[in-house]
Structures are given as C-alpha cells and as structure tokens.
Amino acid sequence: MNEASTAALWLGSLELVGALVFASAGLLDMCARGRSAAVRRQIWALAIAVALVLPLPRLALVTSESRLPGALAVGLLAAWASGTAWLLARLVRGQVLARRRVRRATSIAAGPWRETAGELAAGPRVELRACGSARTPMVVGWLRPVVLVPTGMLAAPPAERRALLAHELAHVARADGLLLLAGGLARALYWPNPLAWWALRRLRAHAEDAADDAALHTGIPCSSYAAQLVAVARAQLERAGRVAADGLRARVRGVLDVRRIRSGAPGPLGWGVPRLVGAALVLATMVTACEARSAERSEVAAVNGAVNAAPSG
C-alpha cells in the first residue's frame, strides 16, 4: 500500500502544478487580449506542452513522507486511471473514424480546388479529397494532413473557395492538428482539473480565430466571410445545438470586429514543434527545480526546529 500512497501523492502534486500552469496561461491570455489570435494560441500551445512534459522531470522529485490510507490511495488512482483511459479511448476512436473518412474520400488531383490550393500553400503539396459525409471543409491527420472538401462545395464560387481553403491551410501550416491532439492528451492526463478542459477549449478557439485571420488576409471582405461562416455552419447547428451556435457567434463577432489585431499569413509551424517542446522542457524543469528547492528548505527548517526544541543535556 505504501507504493500506492506514494503514487497518489505524486499524482496529486502533479495535478496541482498542472493547474498552476493552466491558470498562468489563462492570466497571460487575459493580458494579451490586445494581441492577435495567433499569439494567444501560442500561449496555450506552450502551456499544454509544459503540462505534457511536466511528469518527466518530476519523476526524480522526492515525494512527501506523509502517507494516505491505502484504500483511499488505491481508490484515487483507480478513479484517475478510469477517467484517463476513457478520454484516451475517445481520442483514439476519433482518430480512427477520421482516417476511415479519409480512406473513403475521393482524391482531388485537378480542378479549381487543386489550383487554388497550389496558389495558397506555401509549403509541401497538400492532399485534397472530396468527402460526401463532410458538412464543412476540415483538416484530418497531423503527420500527413489531408484537407477534406464536402462534395456539395466542389462548385463553390472562387472567392468562397479561396477563403475556405486559406482557413484550412492555415491549420496545416501551424500544425493545429498536432497541437489539438496534444491538448487532448493533456486533458486526459489532467482530467480532474477543470482548467485542463478550459485550456483545450481556449486553444481550439484561438486556433480557429487565427485561421479566420489567415482567410481574411486573402482579401475577402469581413462581411462576406462572416456570411460564409453562417452558411457553412447552418447544417452543423441543426445537429450540434447551442454549443456550436455559441462558438459560431463568437467567431462571427471576431471576424466583424474591425478593431481586432489580425495575424498575417501563417509561417511554417509557428514556433516549430522542436522549439515548442524545448521551451516546454526548460520551463517544466525550472518549475520542478523550484519546487524541489522549496521542499528542501522546508525539510531543513523542520529539522532545525526539532533540534532547537530538543532538551539540552
């Protein structure tokens, strides 16, 4: 039971430090309200990366000597493991269903969509596929992302086609698929903490806003793009209900807000995945070192207090 108690205490301290990471990101996000959506998205991307690598340096951290009752420790670990397993299963299922949809889609090797993608894509050639089950254009996959185009939109006007593709290619250029997957993993790891769920929602919202900015960067008027968002989302709203409607309302307000600072065309991967992971490792190690130093000082103070309290002679 000692092992279970130690593991439960270590996990509890990890959840607490993770909450501080997400809370700090939320505070930075509030302070950056005057910055572009791409900058605010990067704040949450870094916070999620720190949360994911945080367990690595903490493996060497000595846990407290206090013990939890064995039954309580086992129950807490079982509850955490059950929630994590359920969320990971949902994540895997979503990836499998998305890949299945890609396999059933038809490749777009030529035509207006292919030509527009060639004009907009600054990086490697992006694969396009026509999908009958898709209700809106979407990016599937993160290692070799594929842009799925609904078959009902293949005859879309040039301006609408260009704006929709610019939005999806911005997701590809910034590796949003990989970041959202990392956000899902962080939510599974820190699921008892509501801030982990909030972090994923904020990352997704800022990623969509940044992609909208990229679409507007192509020259389409804000009013026309807002009308496109409403038209594309109408079928989804009938099925998804209020939550999707609230998200759409926020995006439309952001598109029509002439005071908002907008990012330009996205560069390849933003910071880049290696830099993001490296910065996350440095920050996680610093947080763990500060925590270890604080614990060491507390232990020294406790020992000194015990020595001073001991009777002399």
TrEMBL record:
Domain (Peptidase M56) ranges: 73-233
Residue spans crossing the bilayer: 6-31, 43-62, 68-92
Family matches, as Pfam families: Peptidase_M56
Source organism superkingdom: Bacteria
Keyword Transmembrane found: yes
Keyword annotations: Membrane, Transmembrane, Transmembrane helix
Protein's UniProt name: M56 family metallopeptidase
UniProt organism field: Nannocystis punicea
